[in-house]
Amino acid sequence: MTSTLDTLPNIGAPATRALHAAGYRTLRDLAGVPRAELAALHGMGPKALGIIQTALEQHDLSLG
């Protein structure tokens, strides 16, 4: 699975909607964001957070 910084990884519709509602449109937008902040979003679960973290790590980035 290769990710791009210009899109969000495939994390499911509820999690994608939660990120869009919070103003996050790309993987790049999520770099450095505290994991707890994302976990507090309605629709964002541990699986989606893990996928996001893995995608960020492919670019030597991570959640805050």
UniProtKB/TrEMBL annotation:
Any Pfam family: HHH_5
Q: Spell out the protein name for this chain.
A: Helix-hairpin-helix domain-containing protein
The lineage is:
Bacteria, Bacillati, Actinomycetota, Actinomycetes, Micromonosporales
